[in-house]
Amino acid sequence: MSGQPGRHGLLTVLAPTVALLLGLFSLGPMTASAQAQTGSIMGKITDESGVGVPYANVILKGTQLGGRANAEGKFTILKVPVGTYTMATKMMGYGSAEKPIQVNANQTTMVDFQISEQAVKMQVLDVKGDVKIAIRKKDSSTKQIVTAEDLRSLPVDNYKEAIGLKAGVISQGGELHFRGGRGDEVLTIVNGIASRNPLRAEGVDLGLLAVSSSEQVLGGMDAQYGNALSGVINLTTREGGDKFGGEIRYFTDRYGEADKSFNNFERLSTGFGGPFLFPKTNYFISFEGTYSDTYLRNVSAHQEHRFLDFIRLGNRQSNSAKLSSKLTFKLTPNEKLNFEIIKNRSLDGEFQNRWNRQGWVQVRQDSTAPTDGNVTQRYGAWSYFQVDSTYVPMNTAEHLPVTNEDYLQTAVTWKHTLGVGTIYNLRASRQTWKTSRDVLDRMPWEYQQLPNNYYDPQNRLDGPYYVTNGDFPFYENKRTTTYTLNGDFSKKIGSHNFMAGGDINYNDFGFLRTNYPNILTGTGLYGADRDEFRAYNPEGAAFVQDRWEYEGMVLNAGVRYDEFSVGNQIASSEILNRVKTQISPRIGIAYPISDRDVMSFHYGRLFQVPDRQYIYQGRLVSATARGNPNLEPQTTISYQLGVQHLFSKDIYGQFGVYFKDIFGLLTTVDQEIPGFAITVPTYVNADYASSRGMEVTLIKRFSHGFAGEINYTYGNSTGTASDPNRALSTAGNLRDQFKPTSEQPLKWDQRHNISATLSLGNEKDWRTSFVYQFGSGFPYTPHAREERRQNPEDINSRRLPSVSTLSMQGERFFRAWGQNLTLYVQGTNLLDAENISELDPDIWPEGQINPRSYVIYYSETGRAGGAFLTQDQNGDGREDWYPVHDPRVFQQGRTIRAGLGVQF
Fold it and tell me: What is the spatial distance between Cα 525 and Cα 621, in angstroms, rounded to a whole number?
């Protein structure tokens, strides 16, 4: 009882107490006699090599008595009643053992066990949310996990959005920044095979139903991970089970005609698998097709076919299809062979605010300009209706580039478990990335219009801003083929877990890019700044690492060796070292303080070979930037300290602090081209950066009707530049005239970031998941209209407003027609917050407009959305701002989708 008893209840309380004391005194001799009839048991549990097996369990069968061995395998059980027992020991990964023993009064019985390692047979379960939480007692790295169930229940469109909710990750403009690093410093691995385009770092995308799990390594990377400065995304795809099963899901935000839609969004996804034609063989196939006009909908026309008045087929502004298939042969319980094919295809139109009008443009035939007697077509005034017969229809959005991306991976993997702790893996793959970006499938010489003839010079109000004719002057065609062979071997010897492995890669590149593609240069090639190359290169790596367990402490140590060759296509006179090597040491310590607490520390020296386009591009004199075959790998030296704590069986916490020193980052300086008396910006290792921060994660698994997760990140990311092209004067970018004299905030430097998820439901009838995100403002560089030179101290010296979003997904489960069905409702940015996404989007080709107009407008007025300076409207003698309300400046507003799922 918590209250104090009153005087009238005093005897009631004391009476039982006095009776209990008298009873204890009377039982005293009997108790002492019983205590004399006990003994104790001591012993040690070892493996076949005589090394103690730490933390093994021992029990006396048929009783509640037992104990647990310490880190050396020794155990003691006290106050065991005299008698004969059967004693047993159990430990995960080892065979069980039993011995009959006799316990005598006031004596210690010695019992030793020797147990052998034994393969653990595990059953694959389809987890629906009841996930047990466990701390990683032997791991000195920092990891975040995204499960298949997370991807099903959270309001996300792809696995990268789910990763962006984790501590230590900043998502900006579709890029993921791990612990303050650049977006191209994250390596994506799919089933043990690196899947990142070496030409220009970009990871593979997978459909939501194709992913079994995603493990993000943000810090403390072991030696098996290389060529990544910031972190690793480790994806595992799903495999088929022993019974046929799967699901189909459909989402849309279109509720009738096009005017009753948010983004004209539709997504059809399916994933199914089961036993294949042969014994011990399974398959799994997933497909995800997404079709949307996006919130940046342009005015270009898309052909649509209707069936039954409500079924609509046809491409939209953004279209993607993702196919994944895996065939698994389980030859024996310890041998498994996988064949996998991943095929992605996307077709995306662009939005450019200056190229987004539909109307009429005046055309006249000019026979006076040319000297060869030909007639030149000239464009003049713009109108939203046909003024006379000299006006022709024009939809400028249809003359923007369309990006066509194609990815294909074929892979074979072999896994063989030789015994407990002894495993080897072999993997081979071929990957192909193809990207084209062009207007109306035209070749460079077929593009229309010449530079600076896109606008109406007679219209002094908005003529300098809006395009009236011509094709957007850009053409690109890239291709990469990569062949990979890798493998690893791991073995447990005593208290050591050794792992060794390596990989060999061969890359084949093709590259063509140009602005103003219809300009014929003096070399007889089309493209005013044509950049073209074909290159090949081999590269490889090897590593060895050990996990040593000693007296409860775990030491993770390893070293990695990487080798890279620029190939033979560049002359030896331009190369200092054709083959470059580096050695990367890693060391970490994990110390389990208790069964619920683990503290860890890690030091690593990480390298990453620059994207290959920065090595090979610029072989033609017309190129505006030149690659450098003498580039050295970029380097990060990282330190981290982490703590894990298990509050209860349902609640887990992770805390970490980190510091990274990054140097050898890419930038450009003017260098002379060998054999030519001209200089051109050339890529060099001259930029540097640093990042430090703190991360907190708190996870509650689903119990008592709810689950949740909170992630908080404090980060401080500074450096001399956010972009290797900072010093280039290229499309959409003014050349910075001065290199910063000290580190300044990088453009993704978000000091505070919080994400919280809450899932409610009963797992039988319904479930609702909420996601809230908050981030402090990103930095930006202010500019003034009269500015002639940029002050280096102003770079990223101001902050944009903070951003926040609230999203949700609701699910209602029921059965109909003998099937399990799910109704979905999904809402993003429910509060319709107007968050600034990109203050200064590309407005190239700028013509007579200052390319920094949007930033100058915001710096002067505090209003976002974009504007340009036009003629004086109020008579004060200064040009006035003409707002253009460019939607690219802001994030997507509120969207509501409905969906239906069928599980079978």
Answer: 11
Which position has the token pair 């303080």?
Answer: 593
Q: What is the pLDDT of residues 10-63, one digit of tens each?
A: 333 333 333 333 333 333 333 333 334 788 898 889 887 677 788 888 888 888
Measured distance CA(769)–CA(652) in Å, rounded: 19
Task: Give the DSSP H/E element, type plus range, for residue 22.
Answer: helix 10-35
* Pair of tokens at residue 51: 């090394």
Pairing of strands 766-775, 803-816: antiparallel
Read off the tokens for 321: 């299809």
What is the H or E stretch that residue 708 is in? strand 706-719
Structural element, H or E, at residue 550: strand 531-550
Q: Which helix (H) or strand (E) holds 26?
A: helix 10-35
User: Which two structure tokens, joined as six digits, stand for 634?
Assistant: 């970029």
606 neighbors 229 (Cβ within 8 angstroms): yes
DSSP string computed for 285-339: EEEEEEEE--SS--S-----EEETTTEEES--SEEEEEEEEEEEEEEETTEEEEE
Contacts of 812 (CB under 8 A, 6+ apart): 765, 766, 822, 823
d(CA 654, CA 142): 9
State how far the Cα of 762 lies from the Cα of 719, in Å rounded to an integer: 48
Both tokens assigned to 851: 């390319």
Q: Give the Cα separation of 708 and 653 in Å (integer).
A: 12
Report d(CA 707, CA 757) in Å as an integer: 8
Q: Which strand (E) or helix (H) includes residue 364?
A: strand 358-366
Residue 738: pLDDT band with limits 50, 70, 90: low
* CB contact burial 217-234 (16+ within 10 A = b; e otherwise): bbbbbbbbbbbbbbbbbb
Q: What is the largest CA-CA distance in the chain?
A: 129
Q: What is the pLDDT of residues 373-406, one digit of tens each?
A: 565 678 889 999 999 999 999 999 999 999 999 9
